[in-house]
Amino acid sequence: MPKLKNGYLPRLLTTEYASYRATVIEALSSELAKAQQCRSRPLVLYDPMAGTARLLPEAERCGYTAQFNDLNSLHFYVNAAKTYQSYLTFRDIGPDKLLSIVCRMASGLDRCPRTATEQWIEDSVLKRLTRAWKRTEDESKPIASLARAIILLAVRDFSSFVRTKNPTWLKPGGLRSCVSAKEAFGFAIKKLENFYQDAYANHGPVKGGDITLTDYDASRSVPEHEVDAVMTSPPFCNRVDWDRLYAPEHFFLSAVGVWHTRTEFLGTTAVDEYCDFESDLNFVRERSEYLRRFLNKVGKRQIRSERQSDYYVKYFTRYFAGLFRAFDMTVRSLSKTNAGIYFVVQENIHRGLPIRIGRALADSLSSQGLRSSPLKTWQRHHQGLQNISKRHRLVTRKQSERIWHAVQ
């Protein structure tokens, strides 16, 4: 296991605290080792909602075959720099030379005057960052992967935005920071260096796995090959808007043509144009008796204005319908001799109602012929995003986190 700082692996992106803390990674690593003992070939893993792909270094160290998928293109490019091959390239080039390469790609950034703007990134800065991204195509694939990750990890320092009371909600406009290009790219490189140190350098021989990274909707795509185990952590069911949390980075990715606004994120707050509400509501009610009771309670607790639009009933219906379909796909991807599905979940709160994501998933998976039970459970204080409702004070009580295991 890598050396852990405060219970976590080194963070590259703001969401890398996730649910994959030390206890989770240790438990899942143990389960993977047991499954590998029963096979003569490398274990085949799939994570349909990988996010920051916290199990990628584990797969590389043990030589597993693994596919990590997430709808967010930002994760796709940053995760590409987490592979063992990227580490070897980083080690061979060195941080100083890599910094000079990226600074050369983004030449002229420091000459852009700081001007007030209503956009996420000033036009002059965006033009030079876009040119830097284009120049990565002239490099070898390993260097290009590193350079793109470094640019994305530094984009926020070149952005113009205003922080609000909600730490996950940014507003565009204003003046960008005074951080120089060398400082911004240097800080991003230091993040990667710390990650590599704990993920690979502090270990013995690393086998190197066969890693595939994808960025498509997990509820509509099936892996090319059958897998031995599915291990994933569904997005928290909360009011985080991913387009706002990573707005500067997504704005930049749109400018280079690799990001388009999508509404399929699980947990999105956008329900105004939710056209499949009635069919999805019937779908989740049929799959889970727990959800049927939960949604009835949610409807009763809505205030008059919310009741007229069924805002929260739509919100939770959309979240769980997408989650169930993603897990339906993972069931189809499992081989006949599989180790099952492991999923890490955290309870949330809606106006005093606990949102038991694991219970709902267990109900849904049972309809597919899989039985689920908690593998490991622990208590923790939430970091501030557990409340799902508007105009409602935050609840600070301890909550449960669990690793569930579903098998045929």
Task: Give an overview in words.
With 408 residues, this protein is of the alpha/beta class. The protein is 43% helix and 14% strand. It has a 7-stranded mixed sheet. A two-stranded antiparallel sheet has the order 3-4. Strands 8-9 form a two-stranded antiparallel sheet. A hairpin with a 6-residue loop joins β3 (161-163) and β4 (170-172). The two termini are 30 Å apart.
Q: Can you list the strand order of the major beta sheet?
A: 5-2-1-6-7-11-10
Order of helices and strands: HEHEHHHHHEEHEEHHHHHHEEEHEE
**Separate helix tally:** 15
**From the helix content, strand content and strand pairing, which structural class follows?**
alpha/beta
Shape: globular
Distance between the termini: 30 Å
| Assigned CATH architecture of the largest domain | 3-Layer(aba) Sandwich
CATH topology of the largest domain: Rossmann fold
> How big is the Rg?
22 Å
| Strand tally | 11
Low-confidence segments, ≥5 residues, pLDDT <50? 1-8
